[in-house]
Amino acid sequence: MDWGMKNRLNHLMPNGKCFFMPIDHGYFQGPTTGLERPGDTVRPLLPYVDALFCTRGVLRSAIDAAISKPIVLRVSGGASIIGADLANEEITTSIREVIRVNAAAVGMSIFVGSAYERQSLSNLGKLVNDCEDYGIPVMAVTAVGKELVKREARYLALCCRIAAELGARVVKTYWCGEFEKVVNGCPVPVIMAGGPKCDTQKEVFEFVHDGMQKGAAGINLGRNVWKTPHPVAVAKALRAIVHNNASVKEATEIFKETTEDKTPAGVRQE
Questions:
Q1: Domain-located, residue 86
Q2: Does 45 reside within a domain?
């Protein structure tokens, strides 16, 4: 692995672990609740995340160029939630554009088992070809659209292995039961997206902790953080699980302590 690739991956995943914050939802579903003003949404969360996952449009218009956090640039798109099929995506961003905005990595979706499987996997192969020349890691996102039944270990293990075989340096997939089967079958780091719908913060901490214990390299969680009433407290607790191996109980205590903190707004604690 070239020095540039190693350097970018180390910035994205310090000590091999990571907490990515996705705010790319608008590329297919418009002004998502909680992301109407994405810059305002992520600003208080930046101290707790390792990288932002976003599109070039939001990066340029809403993210302060002075931030030191690496950027994972969403480079696929072309379909919307009101269109015929979310899987009908293409590569929307050139390698020159990736370099121009100083992205540390790129991310795109693959739709294994869909009518557009070949198209999305071909897109991944071509993107890897372009990015490897410049030492830029590619993160493949195993998307399932509305077919939630596919969020099970056998299917996700298939998706992740194919993505790795085509050259993805990192794979983002859903947490599921028997998550160790997904991780054990994938030769590159696996990052968790969301899990099942959760009614409490503790449930989020539980599936994240379970995935980390079963070999995940980290998380790429957005809505389970910034759509909650206490996003900073959630982010702080999740970071502890990912980077400090905190238990569910310890994460819950961090969450409670943070929500009960009466420090006036704008006062930074060291």
A1: yes
A2: yes
pLDDT for res 263: 53
Rg of the chain over Cα atoms, rounded to whole angstroms, equals 18
Is residue 14 in some structural domain?
yes
Count Cβ atoms below 10 Å from residue 56 Cβ, excluding itself: 19
Q: Is residue 208, in this structure, part of any structural domain at all?
A: yes
Instruction: State the helix-helix crossing angle for 248-260 and 231-244, rounded to 10 degrees.
Output: 150
DSSP secondary structure of 150-217:
G-SHHHHHHHHHHHHHTT-SEEEE---TTHHHHHHT-SS-EEE---S--SSHHHHHHHHHHHHHTT--
What contacts 32, CB < 8 A, 6 or more positions away?
25, 26
Mean pLDDT, to the nearest integer, of 70-77?
Answer: 98
Residue at 152: amino acid letter: E
pLDDT band (50, 70, 90) for residue 256: very high
Residue 216 has pLDDT above 90, yes or no: yes
**What dihedral angle (degrees, nearest 10) is formed by the CA atoms of 4, 6, 11, 16?**
170
- For residue 174, what are the domain limits? 3-223
The number of C-alpha atoms within 13 Å of 209 and in the hemisphere containing its C-beta is: 18
Alpha carbon distance 113, 136 (integer Å)? 27
As annotated, the active-site residues are 172
CB 40 within 8 A of CB 71: no
CATH number for the domain that contains residue 193:
3.20.20.70
- Phi/psi for 152 (5° steps) reads -135, 160
Cα–Cα distance, 189 to 102 (Å, whole number): 23
Total length of the chain = 270
Handedness of CA 28, 132, 112, 150 (dihedral sign): negative
Given the DSSP bridges, would you call strands 51-54 and 105-110 parallel, antiparallel or unpaired?
A: unpaired
Inter-helix orientation angle 248-260/201-213, to 10°: 140
Quote the number of domains for the chain.
1
